[in-house]
Write a structure and sequence with these properties.
The complex is a heterodimer of chains A (154) and B (141). Chain A is mainly alpha-helical and 154 residues long. Chain A contains 7 helices and no strands. The two termini of chain A are 30 Å apart. Classes of the chains: A mainly alpha (154), B mainly alpha (141).
């Protein structure tokens, strides 16, 4: 799929932050939207907008796929198969495990790659710089361990 | 503000994440193996652009178009942040996704991302359950 060059995508994501704040008064943040999904049974509070924002994300992914000639439904990831030699149920298990780490870690750190690494780092906030350092160290470590384990298994 | 405003904003952001290839497992894996520096470029430009935009906003406006006070103050620092960041980073690498891109992937037709999304929901629930008395802020409801 033909996608934007890095600088255009970076400009778009970066410009989104102040424009969203100017329109709604709010700071972009996504991981806390999952807290709202977990709290669906409770009455809507001040954070319910995060649920709507999260539900919009798949629509944007669909639009992006449509202009790329898709979407093409796929039940497994060929990229993950070529990177780690994993297929089918093993892929899904690793995705779910990774997801659980993401959710747990985001709530521990108080944000994710959008709220901390874009919005917070753009303001030079200590909390976001430390969180982003953690994201990177954890990501590099897990990737190299996974690559070594996958190489050893092949 | 009406839910449709936030639904539309989410759709726009999901579109941008997809065009940035942040929804592509290979791009995340390539970033962490240093074989594809595309996403470092995206993140760098995004941070610089957001910083300039927020600085401009701070000088020019304190009230949003909907009349609300603009509130993008930095998140407070606490001791669990780095450890939480490490845990998040491991998940980012293993799933090749983050909370936003997993949802955008679903829209792209990557149905396997449902496993990631359910995992994130479980992790979120688990952390809030084990940390409920210490960290969870008082619920408005």
């Amino acid at each position: 799929m033909e996608t934007w060059p890095f600088w255009l995508a970076g400009l778009g994501i970066g410009a989104f932050v102040p424009l969203f704040a100017l329109t709604t008064g709010k700071a972009l943040g996504i991981s806390s939207g999952y807290s709202e999904m977990c709290a669906l049974a409770k009455p809507a509070g001040a954070e319910r907008w995060k649920l709507w924002f999260a539900l919009g994300l798949p629509l944007g992914g669909l639009a992006s796929a449509l202009i790329g000639g898709g979407p093409h439904a796929s039940a497994s990831s060929p990229e993950m198969a070529s990177a780690l030699g994993l297929n089918g149920a093993a892929q899904l298990a690793l995705l779910a495990l990774g997801g659980a780490f993401i959710g747990f870690g985001a709530r521990m750190a108080g944000g994710c790659t959008s709220g901390h690494s874009i919005v917070g780092v753009a303001q030079g906030a200590k909390s976001s710089l430390v969180a982003t350092a953690g994201f990177m160290v954890g990501g590099f470590a897990a990737t190299w361990i996974a690559v070594l384990l996958a190489g050893g298994a092949q | 503000m009406k839910p449709v405003v936030f639904l539309s904003a989410g759709a726009l952001f999901g579109f941008l994440l997809s065009q940035a290839r942040a929804t592509d497992y290979a791009a995340i894996h390539g970033m962490f193996t240093l074989t594809d520096l595309h996403l470092f470029g995206v993140i760098g430009v995004a941070i610089a652009t957001a910083a300039a935009g927020l600085a401009w906003l701070r000088r020019g406006a304190s009230t949003a178009l909907n009349g609300e006070r603009i509130n993008v103050s930095p998140k407070p620092y606490h001791k669990a942040i780095f450890a939480g960041g490490l845990v998040f980073g491991v998940g980012w690498a293993l799933s090749g996704a983050c909370p936003g891109t997993a949802l955008a992937q679903l829209g792209e037709g990557k149905l396997y991302a449902l496993a990631t999304v359910l995992g994130v929901l479980f992790g979120t629930w688990l952390r809030q359950r084990v940390a409920a008395p210490a960290v969870k802020p008082a619920q408005a409801s």
